[in-house]
Amino acid sequence: MNRLNRLSVFIVVCLLFVLSVASAQQSTQQKEKEDERVLHLPSVELGTGLTSFNGDVGRNDPVTSLTKIRFASSFGVEERIGNYIGLSLNTLYGTLAASDRTPSLNRNFESSISQTNLNLVFHFDNGKLLKKSSPIAPYVSAGFGFLKFDPYGYLKGPGGSNYYYWSDGGIHDAPQSVNPNAPLVPIDYNYKTRLTDSANNYKRYTFAVPICAGFRMKLSPSMHMDMSVAYYFTFSGYIDNYRTGNTYDSYLYASVSLAYNFGWKAKEAGNYASAVDFIALEKLDSDSDGVKDDLDLCPGTPKGVAVDKNGCPLDDDKDGVPNYRDKEPNSMPGAIVDENGVNITEEMIAEVWQEYQSAVDRVPENLEYIPGVLPDEFKYADKNNDGYISYEEIITVISDLFDNDTEALAEKINRLIDYYFLQK
After folding, report:
1. Axis crossing angle, helix 346-360 with helix 410-422, rounded to the nearest 10
2. What is the rounded average pLDDT of the residues 225-231?
3. DSSP structural state of residue 134
4. 251 shares a domain with 397
5. 254 and 365: one domain?
6. According to the model, what pLDDT value does residue 362 have?
7. Which of 133-147, 221-235, 399-413 is predicted least confidently?
């Protein structure tokens, strides 16, 4: 194995080592932070580019290395495993070609190629080297592939006669030593003669090691464009039908490709669920009243307060004030009580009203009491139609107001209470 191939193997081994270390680090980091993960399906990539051959043929071309450039296309699928590493499978279809045109050496070949590669890809947008949201993300890859080739040359003209290369660089239809006056012939560049080596019946397939570097431009969450350069080290020296010593052929592929990513981003429920003690959560009783939180209709009950099956404080007289705050625990059914559970009496209302009137120096306007004649504006409050507004009827009107069962407003109630005391 020559120096070039030893170097390629060394590069592959180093890269695989780096990838394995990164994978171990990524596995540890996943355990430390699993609040969000990118779930991936494979991305599919289609590309096109140019090849440039490097072998025995073409090294002595005095014209230009551009004669070795040919077109190729590629198709690939990549599954990104975690943040750092991807595993890709890709195929390449194209052409390799080269030629030599010197007075003493005239060789040419063109070969169609098909190659399948399995690569490990190291991504730099892994959250450590670059942010995952970085719009431009470099990557490197290395792998192993299988290459098929079949070299042909343009050795014969349109009529089937051989091309003869003379020392002046011209191509004629006869050897220079046989007919010095033989005319020039046009070259059709039709690679129709299959090339063989009489001394070695070589195989027309080989293994290859691809080394690639590139970057991707993220066009959208599901689309990206890749620009990359890959160098393929092969284990055959006969892609061009000629081999000198122990050298192997290689080639370069520069490409642009467009990829569609089927991956999506989602919260991973399992990461959260693993940190939750559902048994303890089911038994949780935050206010320690004996009723679990998921069944407690009155959370936050003070400690030591007796509660019913729904977790609500007991209210024996059903006046809306729980026993532990009720200063009158045996109110009559339907009684109107204050915030302490104390029944509101007629005397209490009169006392409050007198204080109110004194405070605002309020005198009812256009209001008079005529025994037996109830003003029309107060008839809505005369529930028993006796022409007299009683304390119970005022309480009913106020209760209806809170229940939104009457059209009475605050001002109407104030006048009603004024009239009630005028009756006295």
Report:
1. 110
2. 96
3. -
4. no
5. no
6. 52
7. 399-413
d(CA 305, CA 96): 90
CA distances from 356 to 352, 362, 414 (A): 6, 8, 11
**Whether pLDDT at 335 is above 70:** yes
Is 216 within 8 Å of 124 (Cβ atoms)? no
Which amino acid would we find at residue 78? E
Q: Is 311 helix (H, G, I), strand (E, B) or coil?
A: coil
For 163, phi and psi rounded to 5 degrees? -85, 140
């690569």: which residue's tokens?
A: 119
Nearest to 133 by CA among 183, 65, 83, 174: 83
Convert the pLDDT of each residue in 354-394 to its tens digit: 766 664 455 466 777 777 788 888 888 888 888 888 888 88
Checking DSSP bridges between strand 250-261 and strand 43-54, what pairing results, if any? antiparallel
Interatomic CA distance for residues 89 and 145, integer angstroms: 10
Instruction: Read off the pLDDT of residues 239-293 as tens digits, 9 standing for 90 and up.
Output: 999 998 888 999 999 999 999 988 655 444 455 555 677 777 778 888 888 888 8
- Helix, strand, or coil here: 378? helix
The number of folded domains in the chain is 2
Q: Which residues have CB under 8 Å from 330's CB, separation 6+?
A: 316, 317
The secondary structure of residue 156, as a DSSP letter, is: B
> Which residues, listed in sequence order, are joined to residue 247 by a DSSP beta bridge?
none
Q: What is the pLDDT of residue 263?
A: 66
Per-residue CA distances from 105 to 58, 99, 108, 169, 269 (Å): 11, 10, 10, 10, 70
Out of 270, 290, 324, a domain closes at: 270
Q: Is residue 263 one of the residues assigned to a domain?
A: yes
